[in-house]
Write a structure and sequence with these properties.
Blueprint: H1 2-21, H2 25-28, E1 34-42, H3 46-55, E2 60-67, H4 72-78, E3 84-93, H5 97-108, E4 116-122, H6 129-135
Antiparallel strand pairs: 1-3, 1-4, 2-3
Length: 150
């Protein structure tokens, strides 16, 4: 019995030591702020953004089909001809926002059919390191720089 207790005590001490030494992912590695990019355009225009963002290594983009629900009179007043829409949702790094904004603005200038609505929203939190790494397209963890100012 004494041997079993001593062995259990040593195992308990080892597990406490490893708990103290291990840092969480956000303490050890640099985290990039994320945003959700939402683009609403006429049907068949969303594929352009999906392909363009994939070439820019955006981690995740989704294309959803939408249909307007307003009456025909409202569409005529607003000058909206097409009621079927593509909704592109992408998770992007905050540092990529200016270049993606430029892509969107240039595409909107092409023709009346290519126009749409685009906006960014902040992402407050993500559950899980693997999901974060997938959404940011992280291939290599970058160590956080230590502050030696203290």
């Amino acid at each position: 019995m004494v041997k079993i207790k001593r062995k259990a005590e040593r195992n308990n001490e080892k597990s406490q030591e490893t708990k103290v030494e291990k840092k969480s992912y956000d303490q050890e590695f640099e985290l990039k702020k994320l945003k959700v990019l939402c683009i609403i355009v006429n049907r068949h225009q969303g594929d352009y953004y999906i392909n363009e963002f994939a070439s820019r290594e955006v981690g995740a983009s989704f294309l959803v089909y939408g249909t307007g629900t307003a009456s025909r009179e409202i569409y005529d007043i607003l000058g909206i001809g097409e009621t079927k829409k593509d909704i592109v949702l992408s998770i992007v790094k905050e540092s990529d926002v200016p270049s993606l904004k430029e892509i969107i603005v240039n595409r909107f200038k092409i023709s009346k059919k290519a126009k749409g609505v685009a906006f960014f929203m902040d992402v407050d939190s993500i559950a899980g390191v693997l999901l974060y790494k997938y959404l940011t397209n992280t291939k290599e963890n970058i160590k956080r720089k230590e502050n030696h100012d203290n």
